[in-house]
Amino acid sequence: CAKDGDISTCDTAVYSLATQVMSQVKAVGVTIIWSAIASAIVFFVIKLIIGLKAAPESEEEGLDISEHGERAYHS
């Protein structure tokens, strides 16, 4: 590009819409991959530390009672 700020002399391939869209598509892909990896790490750490499933006794009693001390549905 010209040093005087005139972008009319710049290479149009640098400023093309397709180039900008592809840049955004790549960034979205990187974000999805990053989020998947970070979520998997958090998932496995939680699984190792406290587990992912409630105790069978708590499930039998009802998680509303065991977790919150009250019923969700009155029947």
Per-chain topology:
Layout lengths: L16 H33 L6 H6 L1 H6 L7
Characterize the structure shown.
The chain has one domain (7-68). 60% of the residues lie in helices and 0% in strands. The protein has helices at residues 17-49, 56-61, 63-68. The relative contact order is 0.06.
Total discrete domains: 1
What does the overall shape look like?
elongated
Q: Assembly state here?
A: single chain
Q: What does the main sheet amount to?
A: none
H-E order: HHH
Individual helix count: 3
Q: In whole angstroms, how far apart are the ends?
A: 75 Å
Gyration radius from CA atoms, angstroms = 27 Å
Poorly predicted regions: none
Compute the average pLDDT.
Answer: 83
Structural class: mainly alpha
What percent strand?
Answer: under 5%
Based on DSSP secondary structure assignment, what is the total number of beta strands? 0
Helix content: 55-70%
Q: Quick gist of this model?
A:
With 75 residues, this protein is mainly α. It is built from three helices and no strands.
Describe the structure using short key phrases.
60% helix, 75 residues, single chain, 3 helices, mainly alpha
